[in-house]
Amino acid sequence: MMNARNKALNELTALSRFVFCSRNSTQAEWLGAALGKWGTLLQEKADVADLLSRIVELNPLLVLLDFSGIEHASDQAGVLAIDSLGTTAHATELARALSKTLPALPLVAVGSMAFPEGTIAALRAGVSDFIDVSASEDEARDVVQRVLAKAAARAPAPVKRGQLVTLLGVRSGIGTSTLAAHLADMIQQRNTSHGGKRNAADSRVALLDLGLPAGDGKLYLSANGNFDFAEAVRNLRRFDETLVHTALPRSPGGVTVISLPHSLSEMRTVSHHDALALLDRLRLYFDVLIADLGGFTNHEFIANLTGAADQVWLVTDQSVGALVSLAGTLQELNGRHPDDGKRHLVVNRYDDRFGMAASQIAERFKLPLLATLPERTLKLTSSANRGKLLHEVAPHDTYVKAVDGLIDGLLSHDETAAHKHGVGRWLPKMLLRK
């Protein structure tokens, strides 16, 4: 059985990721050497809030937490008798946050028998598996292998997670919420028309209506219900299939809509890692989540949500104000996370006569141009005033055709991503094969 486990690990080397949360580069190098034949060890050094979003983004097989009480290589000569650097407190906070946000993610403590306080802190934080940095690499591999085997026993089958697409409107009033509503409803229509037994009551698409002004997406989709984003976070522990399909607001076409609360001050009680935990839970129940962040102003929240997304669409138009806002938005994003290839440009209300071409905008801001949506303000406003979306009254309109093209690319990307990420999540199960 052990040979079979090793064989499975060796076959999937390039697909496996391990994350070590520590500032100690010496320990990171040692762990990297120990686990190198199984995959890639990534060292992360940020604070807890940033680490949570980063770990969600990286989707690792396992996370290692530093309970050694040693922060730098220079401290290795003598293990600190007192953890004056606060590394143990940081690891404890992160362990508890990860257990709450990603309960299925395996955690391993890294420490030293010469610093027993770290071992005790790890156990109190709920991390029972331990790698001693003074032990051999073989012992470290044995611990990791045992932890992955236990994880496989707890998770008998891989779980499909829905795709999260963030529409980041660079400012209010450029049509991001209108695009999000059309996108969500048209994807849901495809589900109901091509999904066999599915019907409009089977909601497989959710709109996170988080743009400003608040509630526009819910209004455009004529969704009924008042269960908002802050309330959803408060009820995270109660989330199951029944709550999702009975309590959450639903449009006549079957799109589930979760909007900002009427009083935006309630969002101050929503922690970033609880918001990420909600997104992760929702992805179990929906094939596609569309997050509208048009005009949203909390940069830390935006960075965390875009970091967890599968795709990030920056929505602008050709106006000078929007392009200035696009520059500022990219500066904020780059200051928090480097571009990881998920960002694409969507130019809305596009008309060649307005000046700068879409290709020029894309080149200027070094973004791949995903789509241009034609200037159809009159038609979109007219249909909205009738309580309809444009594809309901003019299915062959050029705007509708452009959104259809976006959906084609989105669903194609979903199939590719499902294959890519599915293998990594199969690894723990393969460890148990004989």
Automatic annotation (TrEMBL):
User: What keywords sit in the KW lines?
Assistant: Phosphoprotein
Q: Which GO terms describe its cellular component?
A: cytoplasmic side of plasma membrane; cytosol
Query: GO molecular-function annotation terms?
Result: ATP binding; ATP hydrolysis activity
Looking up InterPro entries in the UniProt record yields: P-loop_NTPase, ParA/MinD_ATPase, Sig_transdc_resp-reg_receiver
Any GO BP annotation: phosphorelay signal transduction system
Gene3D superfamilies assigned to the protein according to its UniProt record, in alphabetical order? 3.40.50.2300, P-loop containing nucleotide triphosphate hydrolases
Domain (Response regulatory) spans 17-148
Positions where 4-aspartylphosphate occurs in the chain: 66
Instruction: Please name the SUPFAM superfamilies in this protein's record.
Output: P-loop containing nucleoside triphosphate hydrolases
Question: What's this protein's name?
Answer: Flp pilus assembly protein, ATPase
Q: Which organism is it from?
A: Collimonas fungivorans (strain Ter331)
